[in-house]
Amino acid sequence: MNPDIFIAHKAQEAVEALYGQKVELGMLQLSPTRKEFEGDYTLVVFPLLKISHLAPDATAQAIGAYITEHNPEIQSFNVVKGFLNICLSPLYWNAVLKDIASAENYGQLPSSGKTIMVEFSSPNTNKPLHLGHIRNNLLGWSVSELLAAAGHNVIKVNLVNDRGIHICKSMLAWLKTANGATPQTSGKKGDHLVGDCYVAFNDIYKKEVAELTEKYVSEGMEAEAAKELAEKNSPSLLEAQQMLFKWENGDPEVRALWEKMNSWVYEGFNKTYGDLGISFDRIYYESQTYLNGKALVQKGLDMGVLERMPDGSVWCDLTADGLDRKLLLRKDGTSVYMTQDLGTAKQRFEEYKLDEEIYVVGNEQNYHFQVLKLILKKLGFDWSDAIYHMSYGMVELPEGKMKSREGTVVDADDLINDMYRTAKETSLELGKLDGMSTEEQEQLFHMIGLGALKYFIIKVDPKKTMLFDPKESIDFNGNTGPFIQYTHARICSILRKAAEQGVDYSADKLSGNVELSAKETRIVKILAGFPDKIAEAAQAHSPALVANYAYELAKEFNQYYHETPILKESDASVMACRLALIDAISRVLRKAMGILGIQLPNKM
RNA sequence: GGUCCCGUAGUUCAACGGAUAGAAUGGAAGUUUCCUAAACUUUAGAUAGCAGUUCGAUUCUGCUCGGGACUACCA
User: Fold this and answer.
1) Closest CA to A473 of A432, A425, A415
2) Which residues have C-beta within 8 Å of that of residue A387, sequence separation ≥ 6?
3) pLDDT value, residue A430
4) pLDDT band with cut points at 50, 70 and 90 for residue A289
5) What's the pLDDT at A405?
């Protein structure tokens, strides 16, 4: 049992014995005692004053005295301004450490029986992934792993936006400007090749718009109106729209080109996903789901939730809920994005019997999800409340926002390579890789570079706009992934030394009589809180909590090792106990960082 | 205009309504008797403003001021 829950039960007994009233466990707020006070856990007694009818200090004093007297595990207590600080005995902590050391896969919570789908990444197939996608992918992946660690059955899905005018633009530009280039002949990664075509299209388009605008103005049109009209009438845009029309009608030539170019893109994406260590359980393609949801529209009309206008378009009126009117079917009967999402959500909840669905999508779509949930609710689907929009903010650069127009977009592949290269340079500079094969070194550089990137991004609260400073992220000091990786490597190094000396620190061999020091108690307390931390983080959908937890633990180790001899300890059972402690630290670090998708090296 | 999000040390980030608001980085001063100095120790430095709710507010409510997003028969 967790120490804090143990104490909560004891405090509950005390309150009942002293005041003859049973209190809920929720009333007993226990938290780890802050560093500057003496004690392991602190009970906040303010909520109990109504029951005790005593002053805060007197209440705390009474409860403290009672539990200390009646429980051998509780060694002492003190009271500071209504906060009851409780000390557990060193031998109790020894037993807790032994439990943790002997636990299989510590931090993995028992199965909840719940199924949760996480949709993330969701790229367009007309350009490569950029920094914004990286935040999306890392959040989606880590929240999935977090939920899995919390015992849920998680399905990771990717909805690829593989159809639409954007991909037609790339296709058109490829036909016009690429001279039949393929990833093989051009040596470009597939998604980059297609992305370059998209850029080429926009160049052509811009030029056409400028020319047309000038022409319209010379014909006496006002500048703004001329530009607007030119944007609509640009020949290449019309051509792209024509192409989309052909695509929708299954034109074999267009479809063949579409499939060819998309396959290039997927090849490129898979490389990037592989570098990021990301995979999916299922990939949906918008070309296969974009007709979803039309049946729901009929249902909505029958229910009177939706209304059909005279021109044939269908709307949902949300003005009574403080939102606008939302279009669901155009007057030509075709559906829009929202319609698809409604249908897709229903399909998924029914097919997988989901308990929750999480969409990892940027905060520019907050409104979209607000509307989505509301319409589903109006359509009578209770599971509407089980949809969670994991909204994340933009990633800004020191120079300002990323603007594709201004070419300030940071490409995902470039960034990954930069991280790798910097990890390599820094590591070689420090020259600690003696005896490592080239292959091991390569792996290590990748681990460190990616670890730095992932940790830097995941540790920030998703909904906040964050600043990504490539230079600073590559600084391997401080609250960073490499710091934790390095800490782990050092623990492994100590454990290797111990093994060479033939010390056995396995859990079943540990002596129960070793009293833990205050610092050791502190660390065991943190370790004991790991499962709770996982549960809390999963509840809050917040991988950042896990990141901060891992950092705290790594820092504790560094301080601990600095002041406590381990390999030089003369008492064998004490040494074994200390080794078991740092071994437990390393295992918890691996589990925690594993949730974030960050690998920890044994040497670095 | 309306809706939503954000505002914390110079900077980047923390803080279930709880104690003296924590880290990191940068600044200043120090530390190799066990692993690997990518570490450790000490030091200065912040809740945008005004009310309210209560034992207690960075956190909840209202207003003001700043920054951002959304407000398409696009996806």
Assistant:
1) A415
2) A345, A356, A357, A358, A359, A369, A372, A373, A376
3) 76
4) confident
5) 54
With H, G, I as helix, E, B as strand and everything else as coil, classify residue A387. Answer: strand
Structural domain ending residue among the three candidates A366, A396, A426: A396
Protein contacts on strand B: list nucleotides below 7 Å from a Cβ.
2-7, 11-16, 18-20, 23-26, 34-36, 38-41, 55-56, 67-75
Q: What is the pTM of this model?
A: 0.93
| Domain-embedded: residue A502 | no
Closest residue (Cα, C1') to B31: A562
Domain that holds residue A17: 3-88
**pLDDT over 90 at A276, yes or no:** yes
Flag whether pLDDT at A402 surpasses 70.
Answer: no
Q: Are residues A30 and A148 in the same domain?
A: no
First-last CA distance in chain A: 36
The per-residue pLDDT for A401 is 61
CA distance A96 to A74: 14
Whether the per-residue pLDDT at A403 is higher than 70: the answer is no
Residue A306, CB, strand B, below 7 Å: no
Reported as a single tens digit per residue, the pLDDT across A347-371 is 999 999 999 999 999 998 998 999 9
Q: A14 vs A28, A56, A86, CA distance in Å?
A: 11, 15, 14
Strand runs (DSSP E) across A120-269, as ranges?
153-160
Beta strand A387-392 pairing with A153-160: unpaired
| Phi, psi (degrees; rounded to nearest 5) at A220 | 100, 15
